[in-house]
């Protein structure tokens, strides 16, 4: 299931775009879009990636810049060169995708904290602040699943990999006791180091972070 709730307009345009890309010569499309000389190879790679993608919205939201176009501007230039597509409709689809992305970001500030227990000073504040970043796992909002069970399975696997990669502890912070998955408006799920769901210890757990102040 996709992370974005695609509208009928988005799905229809994506289908027409894929069909048009199959019909037109990519080299001529690249030239129409303004690519010259060595730039064309970059354009051809992006066109191939767009042709093979299974999700136009995710493709558009992925970081991309080839010293000529951002991802959205590449899409706009391509639409102008394809007679099968309408520029105004393309802009509407871009607006719908941005709106859905913003909605997801408001609903899912998805991240995971490796809980190492109460903070005790185990080293210089500079070092603790630096190593403390390893406690935070930022999740890719574009991959949030509509199906909660599928998303939980993904987070559980991320937790297991993180625990193995850090050999069960964060330098200066100590042993990882559990993981707190923040997945919604104030919603937290506690997971064991093996990714198993746990009961929460308190109604509202605090997050300990080493900070540096200059006076």
Please characterize this protein's 3D structure.
With 215 residues, this protein is of the alpha+beta class. 47% of the residues lie in helices and 11% in strands. The chain has helices at 8-23, 26-32, 39-52, 56-61, 71-81, 87-107, 125-132, 148-165, and strands at residues 111-115, 136-138, 169-170, 174-175, 178-182, 188-191, 197-198. The strands form 2 sheets. The protein has a 5-stranded antiparallel sheet with strand order 2-1-5-6-7, covered by helices on one side. Strands 3-4 form a two-stranded antiparallel sheet. Strand 5 and strand 6 (188-191) form a beta hairpin. Helix 2 (26-32) crosses helix 3 and helix 5 (71-81) packs antiparallel against helix 6. The radius of gyration is 22 Å and the shape is elongated. It starts with 7 loop residues before the first helix and ends in a 17-residue tail after the last strand. The model is unreliable at 203-215 (pLDDT under 50).
SSE topology sketch:
Layout: H1 8-23, H2 26-32, H3 39-52, H4 56-61, H5 71-81, H6 87-107, E1 111-115, H7 125-132, E2 136-138, H8 148-165, E3 169-170, E4 174-175, E5 178-182, E6 188-191, E7 197-198
Antiparallel strand pairs: 1-2, 1-5, 3-4, 5-6, 6-7
Helix pairs in contact: 2-3, 5-6
